[in-house]
Amino acid sequence: MHKSTLTLLAALLTACSGPTPAAAPQVAAAEAPKTEAAAEPAKPEAPVDNRVLADSGIGVGGKLKAFQIVNCDSGDEYCQVCRYGGSPKVMAVGELDDPEFRNDIQNLDALVKKYGEDKLKAFAVIAEIKDGKGVTPAQDREALIARAKAVRQELGVTIPVVVPAAEEGGNKAFDDYYNITKGRTMMFADGRNAVRYSATAPTDLAALNDAIREVLGVTEAPAG
After folding, report:
1. Considering the domain boundaries, does residue 224 fall inside one?
2. In a domain, 117, yes or no
3. Which pLDDT tens digit goes with each residue over 47-84?
4. By residue range, what is the domain housing residue 118?
5. CATH number of the domain to which 130 belongs
6. Phi and psi (nearest 5°) for 5?
7. Domains contained in the chain, number
């Protein structure tokens, strides 16, 4: 057989065998699913204390808030701040046995009569000053309420004399909010309960008069 014939046969055999198959692509190993770290529980935010505080009581720019009281004359339980609604109001806090606080009650009653009960309201809150903090009286409440009623009649005043209502764990709306640290604390608020005057044991009520006139829009205090 000639060399050329052998060469031709080899070429034909190579063509019939077809191309060499490509290597199968390697399949990547499946990645293990990623586990997310457990989210930490959100920590509760501490309540923001946005009160405006005076040395004792709520300061100018703060607000009077609702709290339950017992009216020493009628025995009814309600919120005196709420009952006075949109009227300008004076809230005085002190101890029943303090003679100066009794004078404050009489002076506030005279102010209400001077400006008119339709224009100005006031009420006196009997508290217990204990370790530098004014709290709701807890002991002998019925006797205290009876004494407060007798003192109101003795003073001849018409403004309510009240005691914070007894609640389980204390009357927090009064004890914790109002920041009473001393007796004879006075706060005057406008019709929106925004405090416009705040003082402790004032020597006179001139500054209170000024605040009342400004809120009521009068240039001079009524005669009397």
Report:
1. no
2. yes
3. 678 899 999 999 999 999 999 999 999 999 999 999 99
4. 68-213
5. 3.40.30.10
6. -70, -40
7. 1
Backbone phi and psi for residue 197, each to the nearest 5 degrees, phi listed first: -155, 135
pTM of the model: 0.78
Rounded Cα gap, residues 127 and 183, in angstroms? 8
| Neighbouring-strand partners of residue 94 | 126
DSSP code for 6: H
pLDDT in tens, 79-127: 999 999 999 999 999 999 999 999 999 999 999 999 999 999 999 999 9
191: its two tokens? 């019709």
Write out 55-85 in H/E/C secondary structure.
Answer: CCCECCCCECCCCEEEECCCCCEEEHHHHCC
What is the spatial distance between Cα 102 and Cα 195, in angstroms, rounded to a whole number? 23
Instruction: Return the DSSP state at 125.
Output: E
